[in-house]
Amino acid sequence: MEDVKCNGCHLKCDSFKFLTKDELELIEANRSTVVFRKGEKIIRQGSIFKEMVSFNQGLAKIHIEGTGGKDLLLGIISSSEIIGGPGLFHDKRYSFSLTALTTSRICLIDSEIFMQVFKTNYLFAESFLREFSRRYNDFFQRFLSLTQKQMHGRMADALLFMADSVFNADSFDLPLSRQELGEFAGMSKESVCRILKEFKDEKLINTNGQKIDILKKDLLCRILEAI
Amino acid sequence: MEDVKCNGCHLKCDSFKFLTKDELELIEANRSTVVFRKGEKIIRQGSIFKEMVSFNQGLAKIHIEGTGGKDLLLGIISSSEIIGGPGLFHDKRYSFSLTALTTSRICLIDSEIFMQVFKTNYLFAESFLREFSRRYNDFFQRFLSLTQKQMHGRMADALLFMADSVFNADSFDLPLSRQELGEFAGMSKESVCRILKEFKDEKLINTNGQKIDILKKDLLCRILEAI
DNA sequence: ATAGAGTATTGATTTATATCAATTGGATTA
DNA sequence: TAATCCAATTGATATAAATCAATACTCTAT
């Protein structure tokens, strides 16, 4: 992988497009580009917040790790996004973990430098805060889903999220194991299997290993909405 | 209630102390002071984001309302705080509801004017973002508690939160009904009664109506930590 | 090919927790 | 003081979903 300059990088997040040449060069001088392989942890929940993650390419999961070793999958990053979480402004710790699901290319940007640019370029700051808040709002939606719905609804939610927010297609190769899908939909891996089978028997979806086809989206939406 | 000028108001949030006289006067000219009584809704989830809430006095709950009428209590506001949620930067809708638990005094500030000040005074912006992110982080903690622990742990969590984060005392008059305490701890009101009784029988706490005394905090903490 | 390891599937059982039902208690009003 | 109403409590029952257990499948490495 050749090292592309930030200025010419077409993978960078939209917010960076508000930066001046000088600002971009400052970022450039204080970033490192790293490739993470499947399963490698990019951000570790609880550790000191030193860098902002500029996610460029690949697929990663945002998750929180409970004390009992139970994991909860909060979101999937599939396109360019600047990721840091509330610790940036709050306690300088990461509130969640970020783990690569497929080989992923990211840039790590020193958070002090990031804040320096944030402070001086309002257009950039506003764009970043929009992104930041969209993610915040997404967490709220997950919160609602996980606490208010029961298994069938949560599974419908998870599948529709994959189709609409990650792949923009009704057929896709799920980048998650059954275990991880369970962590996303808030249920055990066994329950995942049972519900997928039910959906398959009712011809709402088709499954073949990791391959999933959504056949009756309207019905799936109705399951999602039914409390 | 006489109308105090913002400049002389000793109830205002810390962030406002970073404003210049002119900025404070701008806010002053675009705010209304309102008193809400117990049960009155200050912010309605899903409605258009027009105003920031500067909470000054009283007690209120932040909650999300599920489609099935089920409510989930996410936090309690007991001291000055600027409240708006991610909609300020994102979709101009409130992500949660805010309802007074006791008579509460708040100021409503036009969100455009708020953003105008936010944009021009970086110290203010930074202070606000710190507050904003602390709340964000608190939601994460609740998320963790609600999804990773079971009833006893969640109840211990709820009681310790009241003692440490709301009242700063181990004895307090709970401002929530059993129903609401259930919405906070993620369980039915009947389960609330049963667990409070258990805790009482084990002499961890004492209860008498809304009055709650925490007797063995260390043991309660241990229940909280046990997965 | 074959062994081995991990993942997925399916069924049986258990458990946590909600719901339903009945009773009590406390506050408010007539 | 009685009547009314709503919240709280307690017990009995139902149910959603986890866990346990056994088997099947898939992939990798030898």
CATH superfamily of the largest domain in chain A: Jelly Rolls
Any idea what the radius of gyration of chain A is?
A: 19 Å
Strand order of the largest sheet of chain A: 1-8-3-6
Distance between the termini of chain A: 48 Å
Features:
4-stranded antiparallel β-sheet, alpha+beta, Jelly Rolls, 227 residues, DNA-binding, Arc Repressor Mutant, subunit A, homodimer, 2 domains
What does this structure look like?
Two copies of one chain form a homodimer. Chain A has 227 residues and is α+β, with helices and mostly antiparallel strands. Chain A has two domains: 14-139, Jelly Rolls (Sandwich); 149-225, Arc Repressor Mutant, subunit A (Orthogonal Bundle), CATH 1.10.10.10. Chain A has helices at 21-29, 111-120, 122-148, 151-167, 178-185, 189-201, 217-225, and strands at residues 31-36, 41-43, 51-57, 60-65, 71-77, 81-83, 97-100, 104-110, 171-173, 205-208, 211-214. In chain A, the strands form three sheets. In chain A, strands 1-8-3-6 form a four-stranded antiparallel beta sheet. A four-stranded antiparallel beta sheet of chain A has the order 2-7-4-5. In chain A, a hairpin with a 5-residue loop joins strand 4 and strand 5. The radius of gyration of chain A is 19 Å and the shape is elongated. Chains A and B meet through helix 3 of A and helix 3 of B. Chain A binds a DNA duplex (30 and 30 nucleotides) through residues 150-151, 177-179, 187-194, 197, 209.
Can you describe this structure in just a few lines?
By secondary structure, chain A is an alpha+beta fold.
